[in-house]
Write a structure and sequence with these properties.
Blueprint: E1 30-31, H1 43-57, H2 69-83, E2 92-95, H3 97-109, E3 115-119, H4 125-132, E4 136-140, H5 150-160, E5 164-168, H6 180-189, E6 193-197, E7 221-226, E8 239-242, H7 245-251, H8 262-273, H9 275-279, H10 281-298, E9 302-303, E10 310-314, H11 321-330, E11 333-334, E12 343-347, H12 351-364
Parallel strand pairs: 1-11, 3-4, 3-5, 5-6, 6-7
Antiparallel strand pairs: 2-8, 7-8, 9-10, 10-12
Helix pairs in contact: 1-8, 2-8, 3-4, 5-6
Bound molecules: 4'-deoxy-4'-aminopyridoxal-5'-phosphate (PMP).
């Protein structure tokens, strides 16, 4: 084989020297670093999925439904039932994880000569997808409590007029949710598309708003969701959005034909038919999240308010989070260093996983230390 180094390939200049997205995938006993759902898919659901897959296998000689019509209808039904307002299948689009939905959004509404704005720290893939799609990126600020200052956000949007504004709520990696007033003000000020990434919506505490409530008023608003977290289907790769039907029309201009395999569509539909069984773990995960918040606060650590299935905690001096991260890993517990000096992020998992994490952390960081 001819050997060639990456640097010697005719790579795009803007990709030179970049590193790929890379949450470590380490084989350790307690993995709490990618906000997965720790609970396996229940047997009754795997049985339904196996039946659904089996029914597809003979027909794999044919391409799948390019527009995933039945799946989108099921997703629209799920969202409508959950939020008590009707959403039509034409308002819903699905792809391989919400990452692909986000990529399609930037392919359609970003691109060369255009800019996307996000409020940092937020989901690290937003700027990476911007880069990959040739979209300029603008970092907006967050307050010390990781909230978004509405006036500052509106002023920045009015001044820079980005074609796309990302708001992540509940926000990864901080866990903090954005108020309806702030979402409303951002949507009113934005000259282009506003994408509210609600990957963790199902874990929010009662009363936490969803941008779905604003869809009727803002035709350029998009709400993205995923089956990777609450539905415990990260491995299946199913994400979706709700927006005006015209937004779905726009995405059909950039999506690859047959992007969502027949197997993926079948698994997702079987999962949605059993959404109660799959979502049964959400309350248990929220309980563990709240336990982590309480315990870490009692240990004298700083903890960000969380409406997600993870907790951002810190108060470590300087870059000491790197030492804590390594010490936890040495104890078999993998958490996430999200690159925020002094902070680490831990996913809420099973009670056993929480116990292991707390025990390891106590030995690394004795209370009051
Ligand atoms: N948005 C946010 C905020 C996330 O944290 C993630 C996954 N970590 C995603 C989107 C992408 O998830 P997926 O592609 O699995 O739907």
């Amino acid at each position: 084989m001819t050997d060639i180094a990456l640097a010697d390939l005719p790579l795009r200049d803007d990709l030179r020297g970049r590193t790929p997205y890379g949450a470590p995938q380490l084989n350790v006993p307690i993995r709490l670093n990618t906000n997965e759902n720790s609970y396996p898919v229940p047997d009754e659901v795997t049985a339904a999925m196996a039946d659904a897959l089996g029914a597809q296998l003979r027909d794999l000689n044919r391409y799948p439904d390019r527009d995933a019509v039945a799946l989108r209808a099921d997703l629209a039904r799920y969202l409508s039932a959950r939020h008590g307002r009707h959403l039509a299948a034409a308002q819903v689009w699905a792809a391989n994880g919400s990452n692909e939905v986000l990529q399609q959004l930037l392919q359609a509404f970003g691109g060369a000569g255009r800019t996307a704005l996000g409020f940092t720290p937020a989901y690290s893939m937003h700027p990476l997808i911007a880069l990959a799609t040739g979209t300029g990126w603008l970092d907006g600020p967050r307050a010390a409590d990781f909230g978004i200052d509405t006036d500052a956000a509106v002023a920045l949007i009015e001044q820079r007029r980005p074609e796309v504004v990302f708001v992540c709520s509940p926000n990864n990696p901080t866990g903090t949710a954005v108020s309806l007033e702030t979402l409303d003000a951002i949507a009113a000020a934005a000259p282009g598309m506003v994408v509210v990434d609600e990957a963790y919506a199902e874990f929010a505490r009662p009363g936490t708003p969803t941008a779905l409530e604003l869809l009727d008023r803002y035709p350029r608003l998009v709400v993205t969701r995923t089956m990777s977290k609450a539905f415990a289907l990260a491995g299946a790769r199913v994400g979706y959005l709700a927006a005006a039907p015209a937004v779905v029309d726009a995405l059909q201009l950039v999506r690859l034909p047959y992007h969502l395999s027949a197997l993926t569509q079948a698994v997702a539909r079987a999962a949605l038919a059993h959404s109660d069984a799959l979502l049964a773990t959400v309350d248990a995960l929220k309980t563990e999240r709240d336990r982590i918040v309480t315990e870490l606060t009692a240990m004298g650590l700083r903890v960000a308010a969380s409406d997600a299935n993870f907790v951002l905690f810190g108060g470590f001096a300087g870059n000491d989070q790197k030492r804590v991260w390594q010490a936890l890993l040495d104890d078999g517990v993998l958490v996430r260093d999200v690159g925020l000096p002094g902070w680490l992020r831990v996913s809420a998992g099973t009670p056993v996983e929480t116990d292991a994490f707390l025990t390891a952390l106590r030995s690394v960081h004795p209370a009051g230390a």
